[in-house]
């Protein structure tokens, strides 16, 4: 099953699978400096919370290669690169988490000299990617235990190998259930405006021969009312200390619908997506993107010239709508305030 890696670190370049062109083309972007990596994150050539964290870590390696050879200049250049990368997209905590982790490692390692610090940073970036993949395999194992045999699973956006270091979060649980011999099938919402569900989730699942049916976002209520869905699994961009969860716009509505139809609704994310510094969803910054993503489809105008459009990229699902949060350290249930802290602190 999917061994897809969306980001590759080479000697002085980073290669990113250009997800804007999927599924029609498998094309790679070559980034020669951290600014190019930042631009790829901004335009969603690489996307998904863990994947942009990994891309940012690789961007920091490029910044380290180009930084001055004196310790003070080296750290100043890396601090500037971290700030630049963090500013590209505000909602997914994995981005700032990875950039700050790299900066902290640089500060600690520079005492041994700049060349040694460069080598340590390269190892750290590769470790961030490898850890993410391992966390997905772990959460897949925990998550598949709550998936019934033959479950029909609704998912939103793309929380698969394309969005992570490999395997996936929500789709990682689907993969693990499939691998465990459960005859699962998936309904993938197309996910307006950028169609990550239609373009990416459907493509990924088809690669692994996991049955998948594409639906438009507006069809979820009807599917549930018809008894065609057994559970909802989605990813997360940031989970606040009280369990409120930011994810792709439309997730909140699916959680409310799941509750109305008595269906389990699980958020699936590695522990690195939990941000205890945000007390609740009110503390999560929601990225607003260009309204043109709504007025246009595939570069072609679909709304009247001059039409106003609103384009928040994420929404926040209040924790009361969650059945549980599937993490690499186990499935977390309410009270989230207590249990999320426990899991982050490794207790
Ligand atoms: O705007 P995107 O495509 O980066 O949004 C992605 C999502 O909302 C995912 O569900 C989330 O990042 C989790 S990915 C494992």
Structure description:
The chain has 347 residues and is of the alpha/beta class. It is 41% helix and 16% strand. It contains 11 helices and 16 strands. It has helices at 34-42, 49-66, 71-86, 93-109, 114-144, 170-179, 196-207, 220-225, 251-260, 292-295, 336-344, and strands spanning 7-9, 14-17, 28-31, 152-155, 185-189, 212-215, 231-234, 238-240, 245-248, 265-268, 274-275, 296-297, 300-301, 314-317, 324-327, 330-332. It has a 7-stranded mixed beta sheet with strand order 6-5-4-7-10-15-16, with helices on both faces. Strands 11-8-9-14 form a 4-stranded mixed beta sheet, with helices on one face. A hairpin with a 4-residue loop joins strand 8 (238-240) and strand 9. Helix 2 (49-66) runs antiparallel to helix 5. It is globular and about 65 Å long. The protein starts with 6 loop residues before the first strand and ends with a helix. 50% of the residues are buried. Residues 47-50, 92, 157, 159, 163-164, 169, 196, 235-237, 247-248, 313 line the site of 5-S-methyl-1-O-phosphono-5-thio-D-ribulose (MRU).
